[in-house]
Amino acid sequence: MIIERNVFRLKFGKAKESIAIWKEILTTSKTSGISIPNMQLLSDMSGPAYTLVVELHFNSFLDINPKHAIWATHPGFQELYQKFIPLCDGAHREYFKIEALV
Predict the structure, then answer these.
(1) Over the Cα atoms of the chain, what is R_g?
(2) I need a labelling partner for 68 at 20 to 30 A (CA). Which of 6, 32, 49, 78 fits?
(3) Short-list 36, 30, 24, CA closest to 79
(4) Which residues fall within 8 angstroms of residue 32, CB to CB, at 6 or more apart?
(5) Residue 15 CA, distance from chain mean position
């Protein structure tokens, strides 16, 4: 299994609004009828403040590109993401392979 971790650095004071938008994105993904990977939303409790993490879980690395195509073409996702962009100072993406589950 592969985990894609999208780490967003939010503008000061914009966490509440950003979380609300991402919750709407998660709801849209579940009700869109499109096959979307499992996702989870995390916010910082320590470390750099105003950090938001969106994790997606894939069965294999081959499943990642179709997901990116859905994000780029689905109007609901595009509209919500455009609302999120002004709240964000920067971002980076990481991929992890799960080696063992306990």
Answers:
(1) 14
(2) 49
(3) 24
(4) 74, 76
(5) 14
φ and ψ at residue 38, rounded to 5 degrees: -60, 135
The 3-state secondary structure of 53-89 reads: EEEEEECCHHHHHHHHHHHHHCHHHHHHHHHHHHHEE
Q: What is the CATH number of domain 1-54+87-96?
A: 3.30.70.100
Q: Where are the domains of the chain?
A: 1-54+87-96
Burial of 17 (0-12, 13-18, 19+ CB in 10 A): middle
pLDDT (tens place) for every residue of the chain, 102 residues total: 999 999 999 999 999 999 999 999 888 877 777 767 888 999 998 878 899 999 999 988 888 877 777 777 777 888 898 999 999 999 999 999 999 988
